[in-house]
Fold this protein.
Amino acid sequence: MVGTQQMLTIYLILATICLRGILLQQPGTGEQRKPFFERFRRLEEQFRRFQEVTLLRFHEIAGNHNVSQDADAQLERLRGRQEALESAANETHAATRQELGRLRAQLKKLRRKTGEQEARLTALQEAWQESTAGAQRQEALLADLARDVASQREAGRAVRAAQQSLQKALEGVQDALKSQGSKLGDVERQLSSSGPRGALPPVRPATAHLLGQAAQGKGPEAAAGQSPTLRKLQAKRRQKARLQQEGSRLMALSQDHGEQSAVPTARALPLPELEADAASLLDPQALRQPASVQGRVPEGPLQGLRQPGAVCNVGSMLVFPNASTENFAVIQPGPRTSLLELSVCSWVRTPAGYLGTILSYATEENDNKLVLHGRDVAPRSAVHFVIGDPAFRELPVGRVLDGTWHHLCTIWSSIQGRYWFFVDRRLVSMGSRFRRGYEIPPGGSLILGQEQDVLGGGFEPSEAFVGFLAGFAMWDRALSPGEVSGLAVGSGLPRGPLLTLADVSALHGSVRKVNCTCLELCL
């Protein structure tokens, strides 16, 4: 606007100067005036054209001024749009960074899950190989068992044949007894009819046995002075008594073996036992043994566990009422030294259809240094035994999910990479090449009842333990099967436990700790 005013002022000054120059010229003659008016007319026309040109320039300058104002407005609008775009870009950048953070966390979890799946697949392949080898061994054992059964059947047939022969022998003994009795009667009648001097009076059949005993009580000197007929009679009576005694023993033996012949329907006797029984049937020395000794069946396997109510030396128990992420127990401090071997044992009772997490040990480096956890997803009948994520083994716990007390004991040794899993004193799972040479570091976070996805947190309800945990203990060595059996029957803790429930430093949520000496007193 200022530039336009300056130009207009300059044009006006120039026009004034031109007019003044024209008016100051002196008038001449008439001939000179005509050119003057013509010149003045031309100047006027030039001034008019100059004025038109000036006005045109003024219009152009005004138009340019309006255009500049529109450009400023457009520039302001563009500046506002730029600021809006910058704010939108900043918001998008922040949202993108947040989404990238979530994607990184999901990627980390996905990698962990992928590692677990790969380790699980490897474990399944190894388990399949072991199961294939086990199936081959079982087939061989079944073949051996079939041969043993066939041999047992042969032995059973031999025993039945021996029984039949014994039955025939018993019948022969009975016939011999009858014939001996008739012969004794004949001898007594002959003695009574002959009546020689020094002979005995007739003996009634009822007193024959007493006579035989009296004759046995006398020594050879007394018998030497008797008649040959009396000595023969006494010898026959002694033979009859022995035959009666042997007959009763044979009858008892036959009854005992008749009962034993029904035993294979419930429990097949081993081949050596059947051979021994058959030999005892044919051995005269065995026939002279008492029937109770001959009919005794060898003892079977060890009796089962005592009822859980009779198990004592438990110490204390933790109660986890529901599957909440707030329910967990902390043992602080955790292991203070590196672990090359470990044993984790506890009594467990759960009403849920899955076992949940018993133990979770995490460090800043890895949140799954040592984990025993199950999930409320398939497969529910197994838990993962993790040592240094992502390596793990799958342990079967289907028999534990019946709502009663069960004793679990998990043992691992890095020397050979072997592990053992006991349930109620029975070895239900074992393996090798699992974290051989690995070392569990100290200084981590040890939590009972929840599985840590991050150090001290990251819990999920589907991995929570629900139920009762009693007599929990950890050792920095591999327990022997005898020590595991002693724990399961309540004989007390083996030497040198590393951690127990007495080391629990904090209870969170609705978890309660109950002191009890026996399992029957824990509820």
Notes: DSSP finds nine helices and 15 strands in the chain. The first strand starts at residue 312 and ends at 320. Confidence is low (pLDDT under 50) at residues 196-225, 257-309. The two ends are 98 Å apart (CA to CA).
